[in-house]
Every structure is written in structure tokens, then in C-alpha cells.
Amino acid sequence: MASSLWPQMTNATTTDFEPVIGLEVHCQLKTRSKMFCACKVRFGAPANSLTCPVCLGLPGALPMVNHLAVEYGIRIGLALNCQIAHRVKFDRKNYFYPDLPKGYQVSQYDEPLCFDGELQLPINDATGNPKVCRITRAHLEEDAGKSIHMGHSTLVDLNRAGTPLVEIVGGPDLRSPEEAYVYLTTLKRNLSYLGISDLSMEKGSLRCDANISIRPRGQEKFGVRSEVKNLNSFRAVRAALEFEIKRHTQVLESGGKLTQETRLWDEEKLETRSMRSKEEATDYRFFPEPDLATFDVPREWVEKVRATLPEMPEKRLLRFLHDFKLNQPDAEFLVGEKALADWYEALLKLYDEPRKVAAWVVGEVNRELQERHVGIDEFKVKATQLVELIKLLDTGKLNNITAKEVFKAMAETGEPALAVAKRLGRLIEQDEGEVDAAIAEVIAEFKDKAVADFLKGETKVLGFLVGQAMRKLKGKANPKDIGARFEARLSEHRS
Ligand code: ADP
Ligand code: MG
Ligand code: ZN
């Protein structure tokens, strides 16, 4: 990828220490049923209504693997340029927690489904090369339930227990909170192309733990890290990392010693606090899950999944820049969400005016989507109708202002462009006589003022005259056209 395309990240070099950051991202898979049982995966159902002996961890209940979850895992791995393991093996990760009814989580330990991948970021590193973050591994596991603290008691909802998760472990390759933020937005964008998860930080279908250490600049060996949990937005990740960098720096500069620990981000106080010293792998007493046999992942399966991958955003961005000659911000905005990029391309099939169409999508369409809190799939204006509208504008039947007005109404009601333009009385059906009469009236009215000024060479009053004529015509004219007519008419006066 052309490195000149991306901005240089200005990593703060205000101290003698360099941050080292690696992120672990959990992504809930949007399968119909859970990882090891037939219970439904659904957010917001009555507590404990989506449970069975398997996900409740009752003795004797036997799990079965959801193969679609494995396939989604492969999809993620391929999209992140990973190797895919030749077999699926699950392990038990033992720990005690009220929302973990079995006393262990089924995860993958020494044989992750996906490994050795990388994610290219749309930024340059300190040496001016495109920034790449390694993806160490991406493995399958089951989610735990939820503890709800009420007064002095803790209640447990196990609807979430057993929901399929993929944990994506990024390499310790990020060097600033800003880079971590870009990593997360890029990762999320890429995952959104796969249609395998809701990816909502709010609903917890996307979660991130941030690992951070600092080291003296120039030193190769990593420093002692802390892992921050309870981060509920990408902004929180960035803020928590900034906080931790300051904290680590202060400890080290005052001659203190850091310990490896897990810390919680406090969204109110904007600070982290220690939760526990970090578990070692041995604390989890991993061992192969005895209730699940390993099974093979044939290469034909992997290739079949690969063949269903959509064009990924990095590639699509370059195509949009190259084929459609879009500017970088517009192209990035459009590929930011697969559904929007698809919609844009559907528009182009109907009207091959890439830049004009992009301006509408990035501008007016985006504004309406934001205001209405809807995605493009729920948007009332269909592609064919937006194209009709742009054509009305391009053929002079609407002007820039009335076209936007008509569009607003279309977004409200979903009516066709022409119908709205007629209903609002905005369609310009040029009546030459009416237009000429309006211009003549304005000239007569402002003969001693604006017109006289114009004739003296003050061309900027033209806008005023056009405005007056537009008013008389109730906006049903093209201002450019009116301007040209004024100039033609007044040039007669001049001579
Ligand atoms: P664990 O399984 O104990 O959480 P891993 O070695 O799998 O430990 O690392 C987890 C995450 O921590 C990875 O994203 C990795 O990039 C990051 N990481 C590891 N060591 C460091 C370090 N010294 N500083 C910052 N991040 C680190
Ligand atoms: Mg970890
Ligand atoms: Zn169940």
C-alpha cells in the first residue's frame, strides 16, 4: 500500500519512556444458538430464560460444538490474514466466579483456531512506513454470565453464559494511545465487513482489555505491564492508556517498582485502580476439555470460507480512490461501513457520477442517518429515488437549495423524488415569460440602486438581484440561470 497515503502519527515524545501497548478484543458471534448448546443467543431477554443444563453447568450435561461459530472464527482469522489451525481443540480454563457456573470456561489454550495474522492500519509508523499490528492469535471460547449487584446481594443472569466469543489478541506493537484507537476502529471496521457480530461496545458484544507497559526509549526489553479492564468505549481505552502511561512514568521516575496487575477503569473518576495481581497461566490450570473431542478443519472448508469473504475495506478504499477519483476523507467515510459502501455502489450502477453521488451520501444522506439514528438499511430513501433526485437537480428541475429541501421530505416520508418536488411546489417548470417578467420587475424596482451599482462595475450586487428574482419566482428557478439572464439583460443597458 502506498505509504504516502497515510498521515504520520505524532507519538508524544515528551518523556524518556516509550509506551508498548497490546490489545485483547472479545467479539461475540451473532450465531442463532450458543457455543455448546441449543439455547438462543439474544440480548435483553428475561434473566435466565435462555438457559439449559449445558450452559447452567449442571453435572452430566454434555456440550456439542456449534459449527457455525467455528466457521465465523475462521472468517475472522482469514480477514486478519491468520493461519488457520488444522484441528479444533478446546481447553478448560479454571477459575471461580459467580457468573461462571461450571467453575471453568471452555476456551482454547495451546492450539488457537487462528494465529500469526496481521492488521494493517491506515497510519504510518515513526519511520514513515505503513503501520502493521501483528495478530498473535484469535481463538474460540464461551462467554460467562452476568453478575448484577443489588444492595448487599449479587444476582446472576446466565443468559449470556455459553455465547460464542472470539478473542483476538493483538501483538505488543502499538506505541501510543492514538495508535491503539486507530487499531480498534480499523479492527471493528474490518469485522463489520464479515457480518458475524453486532460489534456493540454498549451491548457488550465487543469488549477490549488493554495491556500497557513503558520502557526507556531505545531499550528492547519490555517493561512490566498492567492490563486494564472495564473499558466500555474506544475513547475509554484511549483515556485509560493515557492515564496508565502517566502512572507508570511517575512510578518509575520516583524510583518505584511496578507490579504486573489487572486494573479497572473508572469511567466517572477517569482513573484506573488495582483489581488484582495478574494471574499466571498456571493459576488457571488449563487442561484439554474432556467432554469435547477434537475435530479436523479440512483445507477445503477453509478455502470455501475464504471464497465467501467480501472485498475488505483496505482494498475497497484503494479502488474507490482510484476508480472513482474520490477524495480521501469521502472514500474512507464510505468504506467505513460495508452497507454504506454497498449502497453507494448501487447508486453508481444507476447513475455513473461517482463524485457527485459521493457528495450526496457523505453530506445529506449521512446527516439524515445521524439525525434519525438509523442505518442505511433502515433508511426510507431508496437508491433509485436518490438518483431520481440528483437527476432532477442535474437537469435544472430543482436547484441546490430546493433539492436538499425535497430530500429532507423524502427521508421523512419515503415518497418518490418527483412526487415530493411537485407536492412542495418546488419543481422548476421553466415558464420563460414568467422568468423574464420577474427579471424585468427586479430591474425596474432597483433601477436606481443595485442595478445602477452593477452597471458601474460592482458585480457583487448580482447575487442580490438574483435573490430578488428567486423570491418572485418562489425559488422555482435555477439561480445560475437567473444570474446569466441578468448579466445578458444588463449588458444591453451598459452599451
Ligand atoms: P495473557 O494471556 O497473560 O493475557 P499474553 O502474552 O497473551 O498474556 O498477552 C496479552 C496481551 O498483552 C497481548 O495483546 C500482548 O500484545 C500484550 N502484551 C504482552 N506483553 C506486554 C507488555 N510488556 N506491554 C504491553 N503489552 C503487552
Ligand atoms: Mg489475556
Ligand atoms: Zn444452554
In short:
With 495 residues, this protein is of the alpha+beta class.
Task: Describe this protein's structure.
The chain is α+β, with helices and mostly antiparallel strands. The chain folds into three domains: 12-299, no CATH class; 310-424, no CATH class; 432-494, Arc Repressor Mutant, subunit A (Orthogonal Bundle). Helix content is 39%, strand content 20%. Strand 6 and strand 7 form a beta hairpin. Helix 3 (177-192) packs antiparallel against helix 4. The model has no long low-confidence stretch (mean pLDDT 93). The structure holds adenosine-5'-diphosphate (ADP), magnesium ion and zinc ion. The site of zinc ion (ZN) has 8 residues, from helix 1.
List the main descriptive attributes of the protein structure presented here:
single chain, 495 residues, alpha+beta, Arc Repressor Mutant, subunit A, 3 domains, 9-stranded mixed β-sheet, 3-stranded antiparallel β-sheet, 16 strands, 39% helix, elongated, binds adenosine-5'-diphosphate, binds magnesium ion, binds zinc ion
Instruction: Work out the number of β strands.
Output: 16
- Total of domains: 3
Bound chemical compounds:
adenosine-5'-diphosphate, magnesium ion, zinc ion
The 3D shape can be described as elongated
| Termini Cα gap | 60 Å
Lateral arrangement of strands in the main beta sheet: 2-6-7-10-1-11-12-13-14
How many helices? The count is 16
Helix content: 25-40%
The major β-sheet equals: 9 strands, mixed
Radius of gyration: 30 Å
Beta-strand share of residues? 15-25%
Structural class: alpha+beta
Query: Which spans of ≥5 residues are poorly predicted at pLDDT below 50?
Result: none
Q: Mean of the pLDDT scores?
A: 93
